[in-house]
Specification:
heterodimer, A: 264 residues, Rossmann fold, four-stranded antiparallel sheet, B: 299 residues, mainly alpha, two-stranded antiparallel sheet, 12 helices, globular
Chain lengths: 264, 299
């Protein structure tokens, strides 16, 4: 589904702060795969997501989504087939608009002309029916401004907005990191549900190693802009957190006390 | 009585301008200084067409003039990455020359004895001049209000609101932010220029300085309207802008009639009204701080 070939990106080129964020990174994501992405801060995880979404253009390489080269397509055009949820719950929704307006914005972009009514009764029923599946009571609050919702509720609304028109690719950028543990579990459960039901091709960044190994179908680890670990299937099922740390230290060939703390 | 009716007429006609300011200031979330230029642009274009015998075409051309002015500002902002407020100032400044050029190099233009839309309707209906002015002012304000309320219920209208609310989210949901801004500023300035065009034909002359301080007048109208109707969605917001504009004119009429302040103090008073209204959150903040500190002392 998604093919990334020799992707390269250097920030602040020709300055003392020069930073190689993506180093000839190649990745082949098959349709229906759910990949969890690990890596310490600055490893290039978010940079990879930004490049795929078109927040900036890469210095070299190719991005191919569903057979189409999107390397130089503008951001809002590829957003049609890519859904993205950020860590910050404030980013994905418009706070001064109601839940139904936010959902309508995401829903109608694909099917409606610019001058058709934004929200019809039929749409409202549809929104109510999807929201009711999450058991958060959001279906009764369609006219509530999103700014009044809690972080977890906002993430669920964002997730719904990203997936109600089935995207070709779903990118989750630590989308539960800003939530309390109980809410994070709930949002993760809903995420798994949505991904499974729509058979979505998904990439999820996480710092929770246990979660990375148990969620999804494949796990990759990034370091200094390169993929240093890529496991799936039986090999992945056998893996423990210690194995991952072991692998990481082998690749890095350095002592590890601090990283162990960071990654747990 | 004539003074109050005159204020109502002016309030409604300037109310169209206030809707334009409401769109840029409250919906797009940017105080757009283009207004100062586009108001006069509409006024000048409408006046020159009226002088040449086409008052209705003049109003349509005023709308187009406004769209162009708004799009120039949007272009500077989105494509050339110029700071939004500075983009408005640049357009406004440039328009001053354009407006003088439209008016044939003179700083004012008289429409006395010309066929304005008001005269035209008066001849057609046989009503007296003042009633025609009132009726036309009500109709034009009403049409603008209805069209905009309906427009903001459409997909495109909602996109414009979303751009002002959370731009990052809009670009991530496959909406072209730049194009939406072009449309938003186009509509905002079209209304402001139409208001200018109507005012020119209403008062029977066009003056190059008519647009000076118009942004503050518009902001004052929007804020006064919100005092009466509150901040409750776009439909109410559009209505409250017009209501605020009428109340603003009433305040001025009352103040000048009762010699409360001389006419030249108008701009200062408007500026103070706007500054005070925008300072309400800060005043609340300081009050809160004082309460907390005072509480500590007593404890």
């Amino acid at each position: 589904m998604l093919k990334v070939e020799n992707l390269k990106k250097t920030f602040a080129k020709n300055t003392p702060n020069e930073h190689l964020a993506l180093d000839n990174l190649s990745l082949d994501v098959k349709a229906g795969e759910f990949i969890t992405v690990l890596g310490s801060n600055g490893a290039g995880k978010s940079t990879l997501f930004n490049a795929v979404c078109g927040t900036f253009l890469p210095d070299g390489g190719k991005i191919i989504l569903d057979g189409k080269d999107i390397t130089f397509e503008c951001e809002h055009k590829r957003a049609k087939s890519i859904g993205r949820v950020f860590q910050d719950p404030m980013r994905g929704t418009a706070p001064n608009m109601t839940i139904e307006e936010n959902l309508a914005l995401a829903y109608s972009r694909k099917y409606k002309g610019p001058l058709s009514w934004a929200i019809k009764n039929k749409d409202r029923d549809f929104f109510r029916s999807i929201l009711s599946e999450f058991g958060m009571g959001l279906e009764d609050r369609l006219k509530t401004k999103v700014g009044l919702l809690s972080g977890g509720q906002r993430q669920v609304v964002t997730l719904t907005m990203c997936t109600m028109v089935t995207p070709k690719l779903l990118l989750l950028d630590e989308h539960t990191a800003a939530l309390d543990p109980a809410t994070a579990d709930k949002v993760m459960e809903i995420t798994n549900d949505i991904v499974k039901r729509n058979n979505l091709t998904t990439l999820m960044i996480t710092h929770n190693m246990a979660q990375a190994l148990t969620t999804g179908t494949r796990t990759i680890m990034l370091d200094s802009g390169q993929i240093i670990m890529d496991v799936a299937g039986a090999e992945r099922d056998k893996m423990t957190i210690d194995d991952v740390l072991e692998m990481y230290s082998q690749k890095k060939k350095q002592s590890f006390a601090n990283d162990r703390m960071l990654l747990n | 009585m004539t003074l109050w009716i005159g204020s109502l007429q002016l309030g409604l006609l300037y109310g169209i301008m206030a809707i334009g300011i409401y769109i840029s200031f409250r919906i797009l979330n940017i105080p757009d200084l283009t207004a100062e230029g586009s108001f006069t642009f509409g006024l000048a274009v409408s006046a020159i067409f009226t002088v040449n015998g086409h008052p209705f075409l003049g109003l349509i051309m005023a709308i187009i003039a406004g769209i162009i002015a708004g799009n120039v500002t949007a272009f500077l902002q989105t494509k050339l990455f110029i700071h939004p407020v500075l983009a408005g100032i640049l357009t406004m400044s440039g328009l001053y020359s354009i407006n003088l050029w439209v008016m044939g190099g003179s700083s004012n233009l008289s429409l006395i004895g010309q066929d304005t839309v008001f005269k035209y309707v008066q001849n057609l209906s046989g009503l007296d001049a003042n009633s025609v002015k009132t009726i036309l002012a009500i109709i034009s304000a009403l049409i603008c209000v209805i069209i905009l309320i309906l427009f903001f219920k459409t997909q495109l209208g909602m996109c414009i609101r979303a751009v002002g609310d959370n731009e990052a989210m809009v670009s991530a949901s496959s909406i072209n932010v730049d194009r939406t801004k072009f449309i938003g500023f186009g509509i905002s300035n079209a209304l402001i220029a139409l208001s200018g065009g109507l005012i020119a034909q209403y008062q029977g002359y066009a003056d190059i300085n008519s647009g000076m301080g118009i942004l503050v007048v518009g902001l004052a109208s929007v804020i006064i309207g919100e005092v009466f109707l509150g901040k409750r969605g776009v439909a109410v917001g559009v209505c409250s802008a017009v209501l605020g504009s009428v109340v603003y004119r009433f305040i001025i009429a009352w103040a000048t009639r009762s010699n409360f302040f001389p006419a030249y103090m108008l701009k200062l008073i408007s500026a103070i009204i706007v500054a005070l209204a925008l300072a309400i959150p800060a005043i609340k903040y300081y009050k809160e701080i004082r309460k907390i500190k005072g509480g500590d002392k007593n404890a």
